[in-house]
Write a structure and sequence with these properties.
Layout lengths: L1 E5 L5 H4 E5 L9 E11 L1 H8 L12 E2 L3 E9 L11 E5 L11 E5 L3 E3 L6 H5 L2 H13 L7 E4 L5 H12 L3 E6 L4 H6 L4 E4 L5 H4 L3 E6 L4 H5 L4 E9 L6 H6 L9 H9 L3 E4 L6 H12 L7 E6 L3 H9 L6 E5 L2
Parallel strand pairs: 9-10, 9-12, 10-11, 12-13, 13-14, 15-16
Antiparallel strand pairs: 1-2, 1-4, 3-5, 3-7, 3-16, 5-6, 6-8
Helix pairs in contact: 4-5
The protein binds NADP nicotinamide-adenine-dinucleotide phosphate.
Length: about 325
């Protein structure tokens, strides 16, 4: 079967190839999924560039991508709750990375039934970004009437996070550039801040929480817009110490400016590395079927044009998700 693989660390144009690979065999806990659609995420780009090779070493060549939707075609001996023919979706675990192909073996404990009211392409757009947004906003305990700032509301994570925060009754501020303002408003955000014309730091005050999807100065600056005792959750900023230690960085300490900002606001800062979860995907399925969350897709590429999809991803300007449709 054909697979899109990274063949060496480097620029996208030099590092990707369509290769013939063997159909995977399943372990007792796995289901074999016939891939209908896959989605790509910024982490795929970072892996190709080699920036994560210390933390997430991969053999070369490796089939790319983590998000999948498809049909269960084989079931391992210990699998419960799935039947041949089930329509499913998943963010596959690191050791099973490689959804840009025809079949993928996935640990059934991170596979969920696909939302019934969306297409396979829409379902594939959800897992990694949706789980990230869901887990981060659950971490801050988002609830009705909270004021939350969600950065990059037009991104894959942000567009889901806005809808999830609204489903919980929060007041949502979000940042995006001029051309995205109207459609991001339509996702339900209460105050869309056009970062080309406005400075969110002059608009957001006393937020209960900030969802930092941008990192760099945005992580420290979040403490300028939250209330005393507020919460900042980041997926792109510096790791917090507990997370870094869990990743084996025993000597890691927070950057000093960030530590001072946290202390000045008696606030909390958590870096979250999303985790695959069938339970969370099943909750998300319910939200999608209830019409509370709609997948946001920028573009669907045929499998044969997957490399162009990665070039699109690399611009960093995706409006929602980039999806790849298998035959
Ligand atoms: N820790 C984790 O587990 C985890 C999980 C998922 C993602 N991430 C990371 O989180 C980040 C976001 O992921 P994603 O999938 O949402 O990325 P994405 O879909 O590629 O984000 C693209 C969006 O970012 C917006 N953007 C870029 N710069 C911006 C700025 N200065 N202010 C506001 N919006 C801006 C762009 O809007 P404009 O064109 O309008 O600027 C674009 O719509 C990435 O760095 C990713 O690696 C981490």
């Amino acid at each position: 079967m054909k697979a899109l693989q990274v063949t060496a660390y480097g620029e996208i144009k030099d590092s990707l190839a369509f290769n013939e690979v063997a159909k995977p065999s399943i372990q007792a806990k796995d289901v074999l999924i016939e891939v209908k659609a896959a989605a790509i995420n910024p982490i795929d780009k970072v892996i190709i560039l080699g920036y994560l090779k210390g933390m997430i070493p991969i053999p070369m060549p490796s089939t790319l991508a983590y998000d999948v939707s498809g049909i269960v075609v084989e079931i391992g001996a210990d699998v419960k709750g799935f039947e041949i023919g089930d329509a499913v979706y998943s963010r596959v675990p690191q050791e099973q990375m490689g959804t840009l192909t025809q079949f993928v073996a996935v640990d059934s404990t991170v596979v969920a039934k696909k939302p019934e009211n969306v297409s396979f392409e829409e379902a594939a757009s959800i897992p990694l970004a949706g789980l990230t947004a869901f887990q981060c906003l659950e971490h801050v305990g988002i609830k009705a009437n909270d004021k939350v700032l969600i950065h990059a509301g037009s991104g894959g994570v942000g567009s889901f996070a806005i809808q999830y925060a609204k489903s919980k009754g929060a007041y949502v501020y979000t940042t995006t550039s001029t051309e995205n303002v109207e459609w991001v408003k339509a996702l339900g955000a209460d105050r869309v801040i056009d970062y080309k014309k406005e400075d969110y730091k002059n608009i957001v005050t006393d937020a209960d929480s900030v969802f930092d999807t941008l990192g760099k100065e945005y992580s420290t600056d979040a403490f300028g817009v939250i209330k005393t005792g507020g919460k900042v959750v980041s997926i792109a900023g510096p790791m917090d110490e507990a997370t870094a230690h869990a990743f084996g960085m025993a000597d890691y300490t927070l950057p000093e400016d960030l530590a001072q900002a946290i202390e000045a606001k008696k606030a909390s800062y958590t870096f979250i590395w999303m985790h695959p979860s069938a339970e969370d995907l099943t909750t998300i399925k319910g939200l999608i079927e209830a019409g509370k969350i709609k997948p946001v897709i920028d573009k669907i590429y045929p499998f044969a044009e997957s490399i162009a999809a990665f070039e699109h991803l690399a611009t960093g300007r995706a409006k929602g998700k980039i999806v790849i449709k298998m035959n």
